[in-house]
Amino acid sequence: MDNEYCNLDNIFSNTKLNELNKLRNIKLVVNDKIIRHDWSQTSDNIFFTIYRKNIQKNDFLYYIENDYIFLTIIINEEEIYVIENFLFSKILPSKTKINITPMKVEITFEKEIKELKWNEFIKIENSINLKKKENILNPFSGKSTEEWNKLTKSIKEDDDEGSIDSFFRKIYNEGDDDTKRAMIKSFQTSCGTVLSTNWKDVQNKNYEKEISPNGQK
C-alpha cells in the first residue's frame, strides 16, 4: 500500500451483516487485544482509530448503524479481527468518514445529539448481552441420531422472522458444515443452554460436565 490516504468518505457502503457473520464463522477470529484501538471526541464527533499497518481497503469491512458497529479486518486467508459493539449513544451512519492510512484506520462518526459527552465509546450493558446472544435458545435434550435429525429439521423449518429462533435458523442455514456441527453438538450436550457456532471451541468441550453438579444432571 502506498503512503497516501485511502479515503472512503464518498463511498460509504455497509457490507451486508450476514456476510460479516458468515466470515466470522469460517475464519479464525484473533484476540481483540492483539490490535490496539482508541477513541476521542469533540462536541459533534467521535473519532475511532485502529492501529494496524498496511491494511488494504478491500480488507476492511464494516456494518454501521446508528447505535451499533461491526468492523472486520481481514488479516490473512485464515484470520480476521473483529470489533462488534453497541455504541454509547447514537450516531448518523451516513455521515461516517473512513480513512485508511499506512499506519492505521481512522473513523469519524457524527453524533446524533450534538454536545452530548460520551462517557464511554460502547454501551457496556448491550455489549455484554451481545457476547451472550449465542448462548440463548429454547431447551432441547437428548443425543440420539433421531433427535439430532429432529433438531436439524426444526431449525430449517418455521421461518418466523420476528423471533430469536429465526435468527439462529438463519445462522444455521447460511453456515458451513462445521458451523452446523458446532450448533448441534453445543445445543444437544448442554441441554439447550448453549448454542455455539465455533467448532474449534465445541469439538472437545464437555458441556454436560460443566452444567451438572458433581458430574450429575
How would you describe this structure to a colleague?
One of its GO terms (molecular function) is protein-folding chaperone binding. This protein is of the alpha+beta class and 217 residues long. The protein folds into 2 domains: 6-131, Immunoglobulin-like (Sandwich); 136-215, no CATH class. Helix content is 29%, strand content 22%. The protein is built from 7 helices and 9 strands, in the order E-H-E-E-E-E-E-E-E-E-H-H-H-H-H-H. It has helices spanning 17-26, 124-132, 145-156, 164-174, 177-189, 199-202, 207-211, and strands at 6-7, 28-29, 36-41, 45-51, 60-64, 68-74, 79-86, 97-100, 105-110. The strands form 2 sheets. The protein has a 5-stranded antiparallel beta sheet with strand order 1-8-9-4-3, with no helix packed on it. A 4-stranded mixed beta sheet has the order 2-7-6-5. The longest helix is centred in the C-terminal third of the chain and has 13 residues, at 177-189. It is globular and about 50 Å long. The N and C termini lie far apart (57 Å). Residues 1-5 and 134-145 have low confidence and may be disordered.
Core attributes:
4-stranded mixed sheet, disordered N terminus, Immunoglobulin-like, globular, 217 residues, 2 domains
Question: So what's the CATH class of the largest domain?
Answer: Mainly Beta
**CATH architecture label name of the largest domain:** Sandwich
Q: Describe the largest sheet.
A: 5 strands, antiparallel
The shape is: globular
- Mean pLDDT, nearest integer? 77
Content of β-strand: 15-25%
Adjacency order of strands in the biggest sheet: 1-8-9-4-3
Helix percent reads: 25-40%
Total helix count?
7
